[in-house]
Amino acid sequence: MLEKKNETEKLKLRGQLKMYIQWPSIMAVLLIAMNVWVYIIDHRAGSLMGIFVLIYSLIALGLYFRSKTVLLKDLVEFAAQYGIVQNTLLKELTLPYAILMSDGKTIWMNDLFKELLGCKPRRDVPISKYIPELNRSIFPKELQDTVEMDVYFADREFKAELRQVSVEGFNNTGLLLQMPAEKEYFIAVHLQDVTDLNRYIKENEEQRLVAGLIYIDNYDEVINSVEEVRQSLLMALVDRKINQYIAKVDGIVKKMETDKYFIVLKKQYFKELEADKFSLLDDVKSVNIGNGIPATLSIGLGLSNDAYSQGYNYARVAIDLALARGGDQAVIKDSHGITYYGGKREQTSKNTRVKARVKAEALREFITLKDRIFVMGHKLTDADAFGAAIGICRAAASMEKKAYVVINEVSASLRPLYECFIKDSNYSEGLFLKSAQAIEMADENSMVVVVDTNRPKMTECEELLKKTKTIVVLDHHRQSSDNIENALLSYIEPYASSACEMVAEVLQYIVDDIKIPKIEASSMYAGIMIDTNNFVNHTGVRTFEAAAFLRRCGADITHVRKMFRDDMDSYRAKAEIISSAEVYHKKFAIARGTALKIESPTIIGAQAANELLDINNIKASFVLTEYNGRIYVSARSIDEVNVQIIMERLGGGGHMNASGAQFDHTDMNEAISSLMKVIDDMIKGGDI
User: What pTM was estimated for this model as a whole?
Assistant: First the structure.
């Protein structure tokens, strides 16, 4: 009895409820104080009021002690009823909800969760047996952490949310369940059915419009290749091919100019065009009514989830990129990146030099306005980049401007050419700079000309591009997605054989009757010769015209040939690489160069790749060489395989017939496996 009394005394009210019950007692104290004041003023009135105050106080005191016990009892009953209501509401909640142990076993789940599973799960079996995605590996690791993920179950899509809920001190509350001290928590999981929502989102996404542009790459050349009476028929057939192809996917075509089209189609049908890899590119080439040159198209499509105007801007960027890469391909740009289709074959070079003249005039204006001109090529500068840089220096000198060539490392193959300038007294010692020197000298009134590359990471000094605002790019490689974006003048001509060819053309327009010293003409001639493999690969009419111009300027062919002869060690290294070649898929030659005891293994690797093409039935060659903690890939082809798109898959790039890539390791077997996997995937996808 005494123990029960003690337990009752321990029950106490707190907070606002305690204050509410004590209000009559507080009022009694105030009335007593008032009674004393009234008694001082009038004894009779005070005595009478005292009787009423006494009665009030006794009633308030009695009610306080009596109602406290009753109120506590009602509160306990309310708490019990409230817990039952809470449990009922949670159990009948219209959202699947469950509580799991740290090992994934269920402690409790509401009716909807049981209905979702289609059975009453056993408590000794983890929830992952029923829903595999809800396994222990994805459970939140910290208290109050939340993990959200997509779950697919019973042909429905759910968004699952898992939260770790602390129950610290749980072991002290009872003896029914004992938990490890370090795992005093539960995993609360609830599922939200998003099947219909995702379906509506997908339908809305597929209804969005995709803007696109289609250009005829070689309109003038195709028109001029057919007699005049058939020209209108030829273009009518090309128009018909384009309109039928777009109409097949319920799209709209609007002809803006004789060789330019604007198209609009739904995103759901755009995926059909992707699936057939834009067969329109090949369909248009089949149009032949006697034209000597097949028509080729460039397609640019832009996808934006924000605004249609942004999608159109993406389409313009895509079509410019397609043209810069040589045409005959489709380029898709969206917020995630750029995708390429087509571009498998070599394009016919254009004989017109209008573009070269326009670029030369713009370059002259920039050089005139700047005090310092820095010229740089790609890392491991070769003869083409070096010759092109020397040509730009000559253009600057003809306008009485000082130009510097940024070069950090001189390879063994380039050294004979480099030393010709070092030993010549007509060239100052400050002609060649290291990256650190160029960065220190550069200011806002400087200009940077990048030759033989259009990727910032491949340049000799990427930091120099950030130091100056005036940047000019001259390159013959197909433009990639990570190109130099802030260039004020960009002259990228994939039809050209080399950067030296482009610079030789520019020099003829930048200054009238320009005089090029013999050593400089020889350097530029050497660049053309090396990049074309002695005028065998990727040469056109303009290539020989540029070579003829340099010969008239005094280029010494014999001296160039002597400079680029191999020594005995290099020749043996080349033979060793060729002897290691393996034929893959009966048409790809893959060779390796490891532990080569020569100064420039990458140059020898490129030469070996060229020689492997002389083997019958070999359509492309790949030579992998180790150098400075990396593996360099030299890829070459004649005409049937575009090695540039293969190297792009490996993070590289280059030309359709001559490209390269790098691996940031020296595991030759892994590198060759990666190359073979890319070739397999592209053959399977029909890309090569």
Answer: 0.57
